[in-house]
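Record filed below.
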Amino acid sequence: MGFTLPPRMNNTASADNVRSLMARKDAIEAEMEAQFTILQSNAVNMDTPLVDPEGFPRADIDVWAVRHARVRIIELRNDHKTFMDKIMLALQDVYAPGAQASEESAATISSGETASDMLQPFARVDGVAPASPAASAGLLREDLVLSFGPLTKSSFATSSLQPLAELVAAQENQEVIIEVLRSGDHRVRLTFIPRRGWGGRGLLGCHIVPYST
């Protein structure tokens, strides 16, 4: 999925930083795919032995190319993880609400309340696929989403959940902590790992729709 940002944030330095990081991540993924193509063309994977039963280099594959591709893939995987972490931090700068609340808002908060107490739901879970990452995390139908990683209600300029979709795409195979409101007043914190290959569509395996009170 292409990376887009809400109109109100399109021209910010933080948004430009995210785009730059995403472009470099895409380039890493493209190179990884090219290196895996080398392995596939030789009918090997990252663990296939490169010597025959007698201990000699196999004559049916390009051993040098395979070894080089394996080393490069390991390097690229490390680079990919580094950029995913950077993207997560950059997205927090783009989508997280202002670090300081206004004095008027602060005056309405009692001394015993926390930031979590103030969260308002912005999305509702309309369905969860069996055996999906969402199901594994414990998400249930009718849960109301209070926070999704750095995203809260104030992160959305419109009713579109595009920022959430972008965050999920950026956090593939990385943990994302969310908080939901369940059964009216029960707050639950869950840990997702968006991923492919679970047997269904999407990275989460759930249907989330905008919610407003």
Remarks:
- Confidence is low (pLDDT under 50) at residues 1-11, 97-114.
- Residues 105 and 177 are 26 Å apart (CA to CA).
- The first strand starts at residue 123 and ends at 128.
